[in-house]
Amino acid sequence: MNTSPTDDDSQAVSEATDLLVLLVDDPTNASLHAKIQKWRKAKPAHDAAWLSMVDIWHLTGDIGPVALPLDTSTDSQISIGLPKSPASPRRRAIFLASALCMIGLGFLFGDDIRLSLMSDYRTGTAENRIIQLPDGSTATLGARSAIALRYTPQARQVQVLAGEVFFSVRHDDAHPFTAIAGGATVRDIGTRFDIDKEKDRIVVAVNEGNVGLTYGTAAPSPERHMTAGDVISIDLRSRTMTTSRMDPGEIGSWQQKRLTVSDASVHSVVETFRRYYPGIIVSYGEDLNASHVAGTYDLTDIPGALRAVAAPTHVAVREVGSHFLLIGGKLF
């Protein structure tokens, strides 16, 4: 039976987590109580998520907040007990760790097992690794990335299973080189290029030389010719392509532990940060998809980088304990 949470469930749990952390920090805030009451009434999923979060909070050993049945009257305050004292950062960290299991953290272990079985090479958190391919080409894997090799006497193929990979290809007309990520196929025409495979998008960028890009399986799109500085982002939900340009020298900058982006959504930048952060980043809200940023960010200081990304868009970032970051909602 499939027990994976839906997108709506995951967002509700993320929002409930954020609200509960705020309440523990400021338990006498009347406007926050009213906000939580209104949020719980908005959707059944909200109230269910709230009750689940409070149950988990109790498991950490804290006596409150205590969630009573939701009062349906229009002018009632939220039915919730208050903690005797603010929770320690350690306890909040324990709570968040438990809550995150509900929104998909447990499924990461399944992904790790799947990638271990499917991949020939993979990397861990904040780990970059240069792989020498059998033909003399190289593939540099970014953090939490994985590839599988499919070399035959006739052709060379590398499948990007997860994460980001920078290829430096030794051109050989007799043995064509292709890299596959999802439904995208990149054909080498003598080049250095980068592929970033995320859950909902694939980005191909050319550092040097030329590539041919096709997308689709049943009815592949016509091949698009890309040269140095070309960037194509494929939205896997809408199946649309967006083209842009950036300085070729900045493509693959993550190999030097810095990330350079141009007109990237905050959501996509956060996805990259997750691969370099030895902890958990919780994000929520449509603002992360709608807001775009440009700049260079230090991948060795993810909390600082996250704040730098959030500042221009006035998105809130909170650090809970030493290994939990929350981003979402507007700054007050």
From TrEMBL:
InterPro entries for the chain: FecR, FecR_N, Ferrdict_sens_TM
Transmembrane segments in this chain: where? Answer: 93-110
Q: Which domain of life is it from?
A: Bacteria
Q: Where is the FecR N-terminal domain?
A: 15-53
What keywords does the record list, in alphabetical order?
A: Membrane, Transmembrane, Transmembrane helix
- Looking at the record, the residues that make up the FecR protein domain are 120-211
The GO molecular function terms of this record are: sigma factor antagonist activity
Q: Which Pfam families match?
A: DUF4880, FecR
Is Glycosyltransferase set as a keyword in this record? Answer: no
Instruction: Give the residue range of the signal peptide.
Output: none
Query: Know the name of this protein?
Result: FecR domain-containing protein
Supply the source organism for this entry.
Acetobacter garciniae
